[in-house]
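Researcher: Sequence recovery benchmark, item below. Answer with residues only.
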């Protein structure tokens, strides 16, 4: 998984009724675009994420899904 600042990180809900969490990557802490990422979510919460299999990256240039 690779990302750049400004890409969207989408964490899909894991149980029925749980909504996806969408955040903007504000810092790439790994090398060459690899995790971990500092992410600012829509509710203003900011945290460090090492994405798992329930996560995808949407690149800012194309909107392309990578997961």
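Model:
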């Amino acid at each position: 998984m690779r990302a750049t600042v400004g890409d969207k990180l989408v964490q899909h809900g894991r149980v029925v009724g749980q909504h996806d969490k969408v955040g903007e990557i504000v810092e790439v802490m790994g090398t060459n675009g690899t995790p971990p990422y500092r992410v600012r979510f829509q509710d203003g919460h900011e945290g460090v994420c090492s994405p798992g299999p329930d996560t995808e990256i949407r690149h800012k240039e194309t909107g392309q899904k990578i997961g």
